[in-house]
Amino acid sequence: MQNDLTARQSWFGNIRGDIMAGIVVALALIPEAIAFSIIAGVDPMVGLYASFVIAVVIAFVGGRPGMISGATGAMALLMIDLVADYGLDYLLAATILTGIIQIIFGLIKLARYMKFIPRSVMVGFVNALAIMIFMSQLDHFVGESMVVYGMVIGTLLIIYLFPFITKAVPSPLIAIVVITIVAITMNTNVHTVGDMGQITKAFPSIFFPSVPLNFETLAIIFPYALGLAIVGLVESLLTASIVDEYTDTASNKNTESKGQGIANIVTGFFGGMAGCAMIGQSVINMNSGGRGRLSSLAAGIVLICLIVFLGDVVSQIPVAALVGVMIMVAIGTFDWNSIRTMKIVPMTDNLVMIVTVATVILTHNLAIGVLTGILLSAIFFVAKISKVHVQKTIQGNRMIYTFVGEVFFASVTELIEEFDYDIKEANEVILDLNGARLWDDSAIAALDKIVSKFESKDINVYVTGLNKTSSELKAKLSKKLSAH
User: Fold this and answer.
1) Parent domain of 111
2) Is 224 part of a structural domain of the chain?
3) Do 218 and 313 belong to one domain?
4) What is the pLDDT of residues 368-413, one digit of tens each?
5) CA 191/CA 148 separation, integer angstroms
6) Geometric angle at alpha carbon 8, from 7 and 13, rounded to 5°
């Protein structure tokens, strides 16, 4: 019963807000889908069909209501070589294989490893995307007249000021309509959506990639499909986490992984390129009032209706109006609090965030940026916990060394050098490990080495305070390691 209520709420709990937000998202999807198609080297309709199919399918099978998925720049960048060398059919085959891999990722619950992504990496990911969204809009200003600048400024003014009049209609939608009317009535002769690529007014049809079904084809498409699957999953799950935080609701990341896979398989059979969650469009959706599955479904349906029935009208929308919307998205996406708190946040966290941002921007690859941030965070974490403190006290003829810290591969080199093996004032040494833990074979080997050094000086050594896990590890490995 609870599941039925939750499902009903995710579909019909915000009907008006979801539909209105879906209209705004659909309008903003068009130029992006065309632009991403151009990046990948395919016909604009490949990206438009992908955004339609993925948005509709993910509404039913995704794990994060209110999140928008479609063709993305991060995925398009990975397709360039495949399209250039082998053509569209191989891209569609790779898209289908991408979906299969993502379903496998969902079945093995790969999303559980999201917990290993630190907050500083998440913030870096978000800020990098915001910067990339903003930078991608700058190309639209090159060689343009002041009219374009005026339209962009006008769009932003409407977006930010119209809510003071009413919030009944999303201000980005009002901005797009108003600027389009101005452009048409005043014959401004600015670049429009139609200038970005030919919009074919037709529904997508089932398409079977014309590729040989053999191992050679698999060898060609598998590396691309694996890269697309990983990048798509990373971007989707991070975007889902951002939407979770924004809406203060939870999502099912494994269901989302499988849902993204199903969506990519379907889009591949309908002539669309592989896609994933879109943080920019998801932010537009949330800012426009979208919260449920209906917003994604509405976005997809409105998108295909705009293409098929109103393709001529859509073609006349000034690119400047959509640039203004995307600049709003960039401003809203950037985590400005991360700048304000840099003085109080640990320097290592700031460095991880900055490196993540820089890597994403330089490589245009979200997966590389995130993995770099995780690796750097791991290095900093290891460095922080690799110092084992050893306190020395004397009781009669006994020298007691009290360990405090984590003993593992990164801490043992300095640990061995902490001891004076030529002590004269005691003939017994107690190594008190109540405040320490032994984690790996390096720790056991180091402990054996310390004991051996003292015993070579005819000093009796006693190891005390080992917890159960450390004792079991020592029992398995002690002496056996030092024997090699």
Assistant:
1) 2-340
2) yes
3) yes
4) 888 899 899 988 888 888 888 888 888 878 888 888 888 888 888 7
5) 9
6) 115
State if pTM tops 0.85. no
- The single-letter DSSP state of residue 422 is T
Query: Which of these, 16, 26, 10, 5, lies nearest to 308 by C-alpha position?
Result: 26
Domain check: are 142 and 248 in the same one?
Answer: yes
Domains in the chain, number: 2
Question: Which of 49-58, 189-198, 434-443 is most confident?
Answer: 49-58
Nearest residue to 158 via CA among 320, 41, 12, 45: 320
The two structure tokens encoding residue 283? 């932010």
Q: Is 423 exposed, middle or buried (0-12, 13-18, 19+ CB in 10 A)?
A: middle
Question: Does residue 89 share a domain with residue 6?
Answer: yes
417 occurs within a structural domain: yes
**107, 99, 159, 115: which is closest to 330 by C-alpha?**
159
Which tens digit of pLDDT belongs to each residue from 17-52?
999 999 988 988 887 788 778 778 788 888 899 999
d(CA 18, CA 26): 12
Greater pLDDT, 177 or 41: 177
In a domain, 359, yes or no: no
Identify the helix (H) or strand (E) that includes residue 399. Answer: strand 398-407
**How large is the average pLDDT for residues 343-349?**
89
Residues 334 and 452 in one domain: no
Q: Rounded to 5 degrees, what angle do the CA atoms 37, 292, 13 make?
A: 155
Per residue in 221-243, pLDDT (tens digit) is 998 998 899 888 888 888 888 88
Which phi-psi region, left, alpha or beta, contains residue 458 (left: φ > 0; alpha: ψ -120 to 50)? left
Question: Of the candidates 340, 355, 379, which is a domain's last residue?
Answer: 340
Write the burial class of residue 283 (CB in 10 Å: 0-12 exposed, 13-18 middle, 19+ buried). Answer: buried
Query: Same domain for 280 and 197?
Result: yes
CB neighbour burial string for 37-65, b if at least 16 within 10 angstroms, e if fewer: bebbbbbbbbbbbbbbbbbbbbbebbbbb
* Number of other CB atoms surrounding residue 414 within 10 Å: 12
Q: Does residue 184 share a domain with residue 61?
A: yes
Whether residues 309 and 395 fall in one domain: no
pLDDT above 50 for 482: no
What residue type is assigned to position 112 of the chain? R
378, part of any domain: no
Q: Give yes or no: residues 157 and 38 share one domain.
A: yes
Give residue 60's pLDDT band: very low, low, confident or very high (50, 70, 90).
very high
Confirm if 294 and 19 have CB atoms less than 8 A apart.
yes
pLDDT digits 0-9 by tens, 85-109: 988 999 999 999 999 999 999 998 8
